[in-house]
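Quick one, probably user error.
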């Protein structure tokens, strides 16, 4: 059921090239819009910034058809598609290099339009937007960031709220089976509690709708996690786990087949080291924060 209209005006600014090359290639645009409209908000702007290589398109039909299909899919969900043509240059070594940077277009549009918005959803992990975020905040606009991999620490710290795209229910295609949040489904979350007895709890968004950010928890035991993971860093809000919701333990489900999806503290695979606790700081809880807005 849709939430009653809240009167909040939202603008979505999608950095297509950044997201598609950093974990969000198969992102579902309908779920992204659902997430943006949570709490009864209205999307006033839906802008997608993409690159298109006209030279390659002339002789590569698969590329041309794939890109056009991608752009048309965006338009079907109400996005205005801003194409940036790829330009080719010859480097000092004689090699041809391409460039198609839509950052300036996105930044200008966001800053000229944010005065009529209450909330901006920036879908990008590019640190070049950190100053843009600060400027939009200076105009009284709340700025949220959704991204997947290789997310700039400066951008995460500057925005009002960072939510990993991996945590948003259904934003990436599932493997089939039960809906997100149902027993037997694969979900993603962060570790909110971990004890010296090798067990704790993983917190995730209840879903299954992308706009339902009600937090839920699943019991988690070390034996169900990756064997070479450094459990000394837990609890940590920077590490995103993917897991199957198994049988009940009292009123809670249990996490099974737990795998690491992302680590925003830049620790790589978080393998065991000499004394990692001091070198692995925890961050703010993205699920608890998101659930309050």
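Nope, works fine. Designed sequence:
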């Amino acid at each position: 059921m849709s939430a009653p209209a809240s009167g909040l005006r939202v603008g979505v600014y999608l950095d297509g090239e950044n997201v598609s090359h950093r974990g969000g290639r198969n992102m579902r645009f309908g779920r992204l819009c659902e997430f943006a409209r949570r709490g009864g908000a209205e999307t006033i702007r839906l802008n997608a910034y993409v690159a298109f290589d006209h030279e390659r398109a002339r002789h590569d039909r698969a590329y041309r058809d794939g890109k056009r299909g991608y752009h048309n899919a965006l338009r079907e969900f109400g996005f205005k598609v801003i194409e940036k043509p790829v330009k080719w240059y010859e480097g000092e070594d004689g090699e041809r290099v391409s460039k198609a940077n839509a950052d300036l277009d996105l930044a200008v549009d966001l800053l000229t339009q944010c005065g009529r918005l209450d909330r901006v959803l920036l879908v990008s992990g590019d640190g070049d937007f950190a100053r843009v975020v600060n400027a939009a905040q200076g105009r009284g606009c709340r700025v949220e960031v959704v991204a997947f991999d290789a997310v700039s620490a400066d951008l995460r710290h500057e925005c009002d709220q960072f939510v990993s795209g991996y945590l948003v229910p259904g934003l990436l295609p599932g493997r089939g089976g039960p809906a997100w949040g149902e027993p037997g489904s694969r979900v993603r979350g962060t570790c909110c509690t971990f004890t010296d007895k090798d067990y704790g709890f993983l917190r995730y968004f209840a879903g299954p709708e992308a706009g339902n950010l009600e937090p839920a928890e699943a019991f988690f035991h070390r034996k169900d996690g990756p064997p070479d993971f450094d459990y000394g860093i837990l609890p940590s809000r920077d590490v995103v786990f993917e897991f199957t919701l198994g049988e009940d333990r009292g009123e809670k489900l249990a996490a099974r087949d737990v795998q690491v999806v992302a680590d925003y503290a830049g620790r790589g695979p978080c393998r065991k080291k000499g004394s990692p606790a001091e070198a692995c700081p925890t961050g703010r809880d993205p699920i608890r924060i998101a659930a309050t807005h």
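The two ends are 18 Å apart (CA to CA).
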